[in-house]
## 1
Amino acid sequence: MTSSKGATRRGRPITRNREHVVNTAMNAYWQDDNAAVSVNAICALAKVSKPSLYRDFGSEDGLTTAVLDRYAEAVLEPLKALLSSPSTFDAKLDAMIDFASQDSRMATGCLFVKMRATRSRFGPRTRSRIAAIEADTLEGYAHFFRESAVGGKKRYEIAADLAAAYLYEQMGLAVSQRASGKSPESVRELFALALSVLR
Amino acid sequence: MTSSKGATRRGRPITRNREHVVNTAMNAYWQDDNAAVSVNAICALAKVSKPSLYRDFGSEDGLTTAVLDRYAEAVLEPLKALLSSPSTFDAKLDAMIDFASQDSRMATGCLFVKMRATRSRFGPRTRSRIAAIEADTLEGYAHFFRESAVGGKKRYEIAADLAAAYLYEQMGLAVSQRASGKSPESVRELFALALSVLR
DNA sequence: ACATATAAGTACCAGGTGGTACGTAATGAC
DNA sequence: GTCATTACGTACCACCTGGTACTTATATGT
């Protein structure tokens, strides 16, 4: 679709594509305990030379930005969609608990939460993406609570913004616990206890 | 007290003492956003040459262990003592909230929590100290809840160990929020909401 | 005065980091 | 075939990391 016109491309054909590198890097950052994965390590994992990587992403900041965007699209968006599904308030909270404590995607934690925790390691572009995703998530949560307040079975006495911030922080805590190896059952127990104040 | 005997020490007198280096390093680790403070930076801050530091502590692991011990003694012990003070259950929880959200010692977060979050960066000795302090803290909290269950005004329906783990995690979350610059008021609000399930 | 003992710093080590200059390989256009 | 065009990787850069061999400064014992 990129070169459908008659003018065929000239020169050596490209062998490594961006997608492959982004996925490899995402998995590396995601899996690793520490968020200290070097570009050298990523090049070795993706079997791409460093200049190739730098031609595709410009800098480490560019790479981590691309990784974060990919993660947001692949994992965060589905989670966000979960909140606007047609189901009850309590069922949605239960779904959040399931997701954080049981879902295999959170087995090694949430990449966004990890990157947020070590954000000082990243460049300015990545940092601003992190801030943007945080704001977007908080707004999504606040919307969820506002909706529930008018349509739900019970009115909310605590402010939607407070509830949103609370859910956001507790969600981050729960996935951090999974990343540190805590058992899904323990995470579930603690997370459910924390969210019980919202019901 | 170290050389009270008649036999006076021979050789060049020592100029830099361990305490000074430990305090400097503790403040550096504590203050810094990232826990990535290099030994070079600490040497520069403490105005000590690298070999001197290595003679005193053996390795980076030795230094971080000493720092953690000093922090435990200076900050964690007073906090622990707070739980065994003669006051009511609710007052003690309030004191915890005050400490995490208002106390100036937590203005840049809790060094233990920071080191725990980045524990993969440290050597084996430091890591085992972190684990020991965690176990000790959890046991202290569990004891607190067990005591409250028998002598307090209300019995506990949730297990003391669960309550202890919950308090431990919420405490860590609250001080992390302070470390990341969140306002004391916001931290207090969220932390108080979290602890409300314990009352 | 001189030897001995101790503590301190200079100047280095190998290895890893993010990042790049430059030669080379593979294609289409002519 | 020859040439321009493009993608690619080798081999490097300066800088920083934790860690150390070796010299030098300053004290006491005799």
## 2
Amino acid sequence: MSKSEKETTEGQILEAAKNVFQRKGMDGSRMQEIADEAGINKALLHYYYRSKQMLFEAVFKNAFSLMAPQLNGILNDDSTIEDKIRHFTHNYLTFMNKHPYLPKFIIHEVNRNPEFILNLRNVTGFPNLDKFKKQVESEVENGTIKPISAEQLFINIMALNIFPFIATPLIKAFVNIDDKSFKQLMEDRKTEVADFIIQSIKVKP
Amino acid sequence: MSKSEKETTEGQILEAAKNVFQRKGMDGSRMQEIADEAGINKALLHYYYRSKQMLFEAVFKNAFSLMAPQLNGILNDDSTIEDKIRHFTHNYLTFMNKHPYLPKFIIHEVNRNPEFILNLRNVTGFPNLDKFKKQVESEVENGTIKPISAEQLFINIMALNIFPFIATPLIKAFVNIDDKSFKQLMEDRKTEVADFIIQSIKVKP
DNA sequence: ATATTTGTTAACCATTTGGTTAAACCATAT
DNA sequence: ATATGGTTTAACCAAATGGTTAACAAATAT
């Protein structure tokens, strides 16, 4: 049995780099800190990844490949819009509990370097709205949901699900609650967000 | 007539620092770049603001003082929840067109240093949910709106309004549209977001 | 056993960066 | 005119930082 990813030096470096980069961002991270976190010499980082930029890109692509399928979940299965929303909202909020730094990290770095995301267009199940768009248009037409553009609905779903994880400290300060209450609030959102969206678009019979 | 803020050296520095810090963040910004943007010598930055940290804090507090009243708008006037939402959504999206970097900047920096926001608690009309909370509870009780906690509603309003400005490049890539279409999409949101929220919470007569 | 490749390290290097200093500049009061 | 105070600059400095090198260690092939 070959060594698992986490036992090889290269894997340890990637893991350490992930931790540091996702917490501090490209600009705020130091190669020495990554080396320390991986428990190895700084020169080894360059031996395996040549430069800070390349190490960063490896981490970013990994992160993006983790995020993308989550979004594709909502776009490319065959359930109704309503089911998709419930399913996605629940899954996404669960997923985010395991990767709390992911959205902050991705969004910050994509803002820092917007061209970066264009390189990813072709790879790794990059989210594509086409199918979702047809489905929304069809459901609007046959009266299952109220008129709304697929784009706006998609943005709303993303916003309601992702925003709280990006703005956590801000929300905590405004709503003025402790960690425990905040966690509960997030837990409640697993169902509340879906209800909120569906209430807005569902046509009552 | 005394010199306007923008003519004094101190004001020019603050303006330049705002531009650079808001675009690149604390970690990504260089004192030299700020000096260049202000058209002055780097030593002058230290003459007026002592250190990068202090210059940054001046910029951050300015930015926050611009953001905070926008949020207080929704929380502390006397109109109905529905009117508040319409009013706020329209105003906020207009406001953001003028300060496109503000939310990115504030959220990123608050994440980088969560304690930072606690120092702002006391000053500058820091958003307070108490009144809004009472109002939501009252409207829920007398049946004007469906049951929802003020906290969740507040988070949803923030998310739907702010998120698109934070995640712009990501959304552009996913929705696969050009700048012009994106701008139109954002313009549409001035009314669509309010409709979306109100449809979700309004009780039909 | 020994040569060769691969992995790892300590020491080093060039550049960048935040910050300082001492001298020059300039307006204003005397 | 000249002294005085704040303002501005060029030159400088020490520390930090990404990256390299040369030697050493440990597998792997011959």
